[in-house]
Please model this.
Amino acid sequence: MRRFLRENSLSLGFGVAFLAALVGQSYAGYLDNNNELAAHHEHLISYGRYLVSSEFGASVMENWQSEYLQFTLYIVATVWLLQRGSNESKPLDEAGLESDEKEKLGAHASPSSPKWARARGWRRQLYSNSLGLLMGTLFIGSWLAESLGAWTEYNNDQTAHMEPTVSWLTYIGTSSFWERSLENWQSELLAVGSMAVFTIYLRQRGSPESKPVGAPHEQTGP
Model:
């Protein structure tokens, strides 16, 4: 058990922190939602009802989709885009998809390589792009879920104020929806871009996200 915990401490640590933050968000959101209902002299709801509400779902998905957008773009963009001196960039002479030999594909695969890396045709092609495809799918899925939750929340507010509701297509064309989405996207893109630049000059001893402390600034790649 100790060995398992040590060898999986990164995923387990972030998993526990994620669940703690999600529970904290849900309870804080529940209290804030009931405070707002009380201020408008409306019926309060239970914690369980809040967990399945469009308000909670939209707020969670709003952040998830921006995170998955960040990683989707970064995974795909770093195939071709480079940054001299950055630990987040490939070496300057390795832009592009790289050779089958370097990627250990087909005849260049080792006995311990994944089965689909040794396969031919669509299976190798699919597996070669599986990380980007999964992240892109998670982004689109969470974006759709967020838009549906926000649309339901918007129509609930419209109904409460005796105003007409709108269709989903009409809602995703509103400035309110895009302001909500772009607010998150720009912050994630800023964080990723600044990280790529910061690793040129700054170091964190022992971290795989940093170059060795004594590495020259112009050294590019991990």
